Amino acid sequence: MTAAAGSLAGWAVVVAVVSRSQGLLTPAAVTLALLAGVLLAWSLVRAWAPGVGWVLWALVLGYLLCLLAQPRRVDEGAPVAGAALFLMAELAYWSIELRPPARQARELPARRLAAILGVVLAAEALSAAALLTASPGPDVGVVLDAAGAAAAVAAVALLLGLLDRHRSGPGG
Amino acid sequence: MTRYPTHKLGAYTAVVAFGLLGALASGLPELVALVAPFAVLLLYGLVRSPASAVSVGLTLAGERAVEGEGVPLHVDVRAHAPLEQVEVLVAVPRGLTLEGAPNPTALRLADGEAARLEYVVRGVRWGLYGVGEAWLRVRDRFGLFQFESRVDRRVPLRVYPGARTLRGLVRPHETRVTVGNQVARTKGDGIEFADLRPFVPGDRVRRVNWRASARQGALWVNDAHPERNTDIVLFLDTFAEARSAAGSTLDAAVRAATALAARYLDGRDRVGLVRLGGTLRWLVPGTGPAHLHRVVEALLEADASPSFIDKGIGLVPPHTLPPRALVIALTPLLDERGRAVMLDLHARGFDLVIIEVSPLGLVEPAEGELGELALRLWRLEREAVRARYERLGIAVAEWRDGVELESALEEVAAFRRYARQVRG
Question: Which entry of A18, B117, B135, B393 is 20 to 30 Å from B295 by CA?
């Protein structure tokens, strides 16, 4: 229950970040975020893990709509939105994992929470560095572009691998 | 163990791919910042590939229990690598409950560390079960991958029906010639006084009734009923059963059969068993504590599996049904084939008693007026079947849920007393 409440709080932060933008598409983005909230609540109640993935997609798209519509300047709230989005997803999955309720060893929740916060802090540092580097404008150098492209290709390759595994069934 | 990527891994990878490609395409660095936590987690989770080396042992401390009795079950989990989260779910068949440690349980184990989970398996319903199945799930710290495996160390657990103590029993019309605890209806050497008769040469002097002889002016002797044993055949109708969450007619019938077998064997009678229904099983009448064990073992396998085969008493070997045996039928009177077998037994001259294990407490009428009407018709039909048996001189007693078996036995005994007077 605590994890589910934390997840909803994370969603609320993302909605707040989305709604404070002043672009033309902000109402559409907010609507999308609110629908994502309904889906999140439904997924938490029914312990439907794939639903959390769809919520993530909806919120990322909502945030993208805000960015596209507003005047071009770097959004300093992006790391906060990322952290909130991550916390929302992690806590939602954690909440769903615990059903049916399993008695956990006492140290497990604390260790997991510490790990999540550690990832958030590391990611915040990474995000801040990325934004600082990107602040002057989109034309920031070939090396950074190459690093971003390599990361994107790796992520796509991983995604394709997972899809292939999903089609061929589980395996060791 | 089988490794599965979780939904989370797929969702996070898709979001990271979308964010990075979107950032490259649109030149929006905010998207990189947005998906950075997911990317960090993926990187961490993929680099630190989780281990799944774990062994599990399940030990059941006993092989036999009576209904309601518990048998300790130990689950030993040992890790052969550091494991962030191991979930253990012990599966028990329906009819058993698991008490003790929480189920499922999540543990964290260091390399070489062992943990013991202590449970108690309690038998709720009699039967033959296999206990020792568990499911293991090992997760990494962020739940990107999970390993699952099924551990099957099943060993048999026999849960015997709870023993009812019976005081009264149905007396048979006929007895055997060997000694037992049943008072025979014939006259001979025994303890129970039967009658007075004039002395004839050969009578023992100690049987002379001196008080009666003094009054009559001639020698009179006491006659007695000898103590004999008898053959009892328990007939279990398993053609059909009525079942609800609270139990079934077959559950009650097996408990009653166990109690009757124990009580008759205690009185040195010979007890046999015929289980007729989806499967046919018989046990030739025998005596002694070892035979009680055989009877109960045969009862444990009883089930009312559906069958369309029309089985009759002709399939049962003749020596399983001795001619003078008292046949006690335990039946819910639900299946026409079972009802026909009762009539067949009576027609063959067996001393038959029917304990009707009533299904009325286990059924509920369907919704509406028609449902109630159907239930009334069904009850009337059952009463007609009972009346038919009674017209033939067969003792029938309805044994309802929550009523002691002895009440039904007493009802049967009363009918048999009455029926004998009518015949005489």
Answer: B393
